[in-house]
Specification:
The chain is built from nine helices and no strands. The chain is mainly α and 204 residues long. It comes from Labeo rohita (Indian major carp).
């Protein structure tokens, strides 16, 4: 005999989805903090990490960085990896989930949030997480990060932004950079709970 999911079970799943959406919105705020407050000052200073440019690189190719010809993008990427790509896929995911919840028919037991992950996975949209985790968790990352901050002019520049900014970069930023790694693991937990609830609510 088929068992229809109870109203309480349907509500529990819907509450899970709503809670996840709230978490993703908070996660986006964290990503914006990393990108706007921390990454942009690094990316916008032409000589922050490469103050001694060799004569051959005084006028590097325009493709290196059209806006700031002396910026070395790899220096910034070594610290922030693919954080901008992760922000982009997070915006897409939240938009898909919001659309799914909004378009769910009243007769449907719950919004099929798993399909949002499937759509993005088919586009390989989550690949930046793999690269990011490898970069941030690699052996020697923290030492390299500190060595970048100790380069001539870097400390002075960071101190000039605002009082306490250099200390925030040194002590707060490394912890913030772990946020996407933890959030990616949280995705797996949410998906497991989602699949479990959906299976439990499905007619038998």
């Amino acid at each position: 005999m088929d068992e229809e999911p109870s109203a309480a079970e349907e509500q529990a799943y819907y509450d899970l989805v709503k809670a996840f959406m709230a978490e993703v919105r908070q996660y986006l705020r964290d990503l914006n903090l990393i990108i706007k407050v921390f990454r942009e000052p690094f990316a916008s200073n032409a000589m922050l990490f490469s103050p001694h440019v060799s004569p051959a690189l005084r006028h590097p190719p325009a493709a290196l960085s059209p806006a700031h010809p002396c910026v070395f993008p790899q220096d910034v990427e070594n610290i922030f990896s693919r954080i901008v790509d992760i922000h982009e896929v997070t915006v897409k995911l939240l938009g898909l989930i919001e659309d799914t919840v909004e378009m769910t028919d009243e007769g449907s037991p719950h919004p099929l949030v798993g399909s949002c992950f499937e759509d993005l996975a088919e586009e390989l949209a989550f690949d930046p997480y793999e690269t990011y985790a490898q970069d941030i968790l690699r052996s020697g990352f923290h030492d390299h990060f500190l060595s970048q901050l100790s380069k001539p002019g870097a400390a002075i520049y960071l101190q000039s932004i605002c009082e306490g900014f250099k200390e925030a970069v040194q002590y707060v930023l490394p912890r913030l950079l772990l946020t996407p790694v933890y959030h990616c693991l949280h995705y797996f937990e949410i998906l497991k709970a989602s699949v479990s609830d959906a299976s439990h609510n499905a007619p038998h």
